[in-house]
Specification:
Number of strands of chain A: 15
Strand order of the largest sheet of chain B: 9-8-7-10-6-1-4-5-11
CATH class of chain B: Alpha Beta
Radius of gyration of chain B: 21 Å
CATH architecture of the largest domain in chain A: 3-Layer(aba) Sandwich
Oligomer: heterodimer
Strand content of chain B: 25-35%
Distance between the termini of chain B: 63 Å
Largest sheet of chain B: 9 strands, mixed
Number of domains of chain A: 2
Number of helices of chain A: 8
Helix content of chain A: 25-40%
CATH class of the largest domain in chain A: Alpha Beta
Number of strands of chain B: 13
Helix content of chain B: 25-40%
Largest sheet of chain A: 5 strands, parallel
Chain lengths: 299, 252
Amino acid sequence: MSSLAAITAAQKLGGSIHGFVAGSGAKEVAAEAAKVEGLEKVIFVDNGAYDKGLPENFAPLLVENIKKGGYSHVLAGHSAFGKNLMPRVAALLDVQQISDITSVEGEDTFVRPIYAGNAILTVQSSDSPKVVTVRGTAFQSGAAEGGSASTEEGTDPKVESPTEWVSESLTKSDRPELGSAERVVSGGRGLKSKEEFDRLMPPLADALGAAIGASRAAVDSGFADNSLQVGQTGKNVAPQLYLCAGISGAIQHLAGMKDSKVIAAINKDAEAPIFQVADVGLVGDLFDKVPELTEKLQK
Amino acid sequence: MSGLRILVPVKRVIDYAVKPRVNKAQTGVETNVKHSMNPFDELSIEEAVRLRERKQPVEDILAFSAGPAKAQDILRTAMAMGADRGIHVVEEKVELEPLTVAKLLKKVVEDEKRNLVILGKQSIDDDANQTGQMLAGLLNWPQATQASKVEIDGETCTVTREVDGGVETLKAKLPMIITTDLRLNEPRYASLPNIMKAKKKPLEKKTLADYGLDTNQRLKTVKVTEPPARQGGGKVEDVDGMISKLKELGAL
């Protein structure tokens, strides 16, 4: 998803756009990626050493292919993968990366939020190439079908990674992915316990077909998994509807959700800062209001 | 086996609880407000100190900061939390870019023969999330970013990192770069006796020129503006009111 947003951002620069994929079966993945609208060519490197996206070998691989292609701009999604990898690439190229852009103002000028979204910075880069990561929710994702790019094998410097990938533990869910969901329901400290979070939030999410998010307070208190955290230090979301319960609205949380189309909040504290940004606010006890809302939405 | 020689870079930033205000000239935010250590850097110091407390063979913990004279306070805080000494590269005029800081840190790593650098994953002012990765790239060292758990056994570091959708675990040999995520630990408060002791710990002052670097900026600030304000849409009486308002707004 974040890659599609990066392609949209790249299109605003006006030139031709090449995609890059590496890993086992990259040739097949490249053939798929070639259908993505907006791409002219997809470079692939078929080598299982790149499957886990380890920056120690992926960065030199990218650098090699960036130099070979003579690119003026290198863009990636500001995802866990992009955040981990791209600054290493930028350092190897001796350029100053521009992180998490929300707008492209010109070939060398970009807009990005700073101070947890409390200020908006416009910067002009004198570097070449320009290395940029893109905020997924700030750009429309282009179509994954309809394009007809060519594919071409890239160069593989075969740098050994000193880092060994051991294991992963991903939260499984049938719900839409938090970062790209149309609707998000989010719970905070007001839910009081993991039991209450698990009792009240999933049915509400199901009634709306929404992803579940959480505030940092809820995550730190163990009510919800880390990967659900919305905010400056968690995920940025910008769904059509962000419905939150028991979240006061600290600036760090607002940084992650204030670009949502419609914000709705349930909180028992009428003075909670969340009501200053909510389009629809309901003052009340979430333990009454959330089940009632869930029931009425199911009808 | 040699011991851990840890470097912890810390940054002085506007306190996380202060709402930043854009200045009239649109060149930045008002800085005449409370400042503190970047929260992610507190986690880095804490982790370094805990490694020592876990009986890891820690030779020393060096805290480092580059910035205005007042950044010295942040280094003293780091030393009160348990760092052994500090280096302060004094730079009053410009806010150094992550690439410059990474180059500076590379020199410090080499001069001070460091084998572990623990940095915060991002500073809460520029939100760049770059310095650790850049340093790892410049040194050609392994990196483990957004760490929520660090275990060191001899020369081997096992790090659990926060990724989209869950966690992953990596293993690498020292030397290594680690960046901290919020879940890594709970930083301690410096006690008064430790604050007093920290005043006597060595703090070396340096300049960028000492490391052969300048303040050359790759990025030019065109302007800094306030984000578009959101207007709260007012409150509804009950759940039915909420549902009809959401329908009216096209959200349902």
